[in-house]
Amino acid sequence: MKPKIYFLIYLSAAVREFSKEELLEMLASFRKQNAANNITGMLLYKDGYFQQLIEGSEEAVKFLYERICLDERHRGITTLIEGFEEERQFSDWSMGFCDLNSEEAAKIPGYSQFLDTSLSDDRFRSNPDIGRRFMLLFRNHQKSSELNPSA
Question: Over the stretch 32-41, which tens digit does the pLDDT of each residue have?
Answer without folding.
Answer: 999 999 999 9
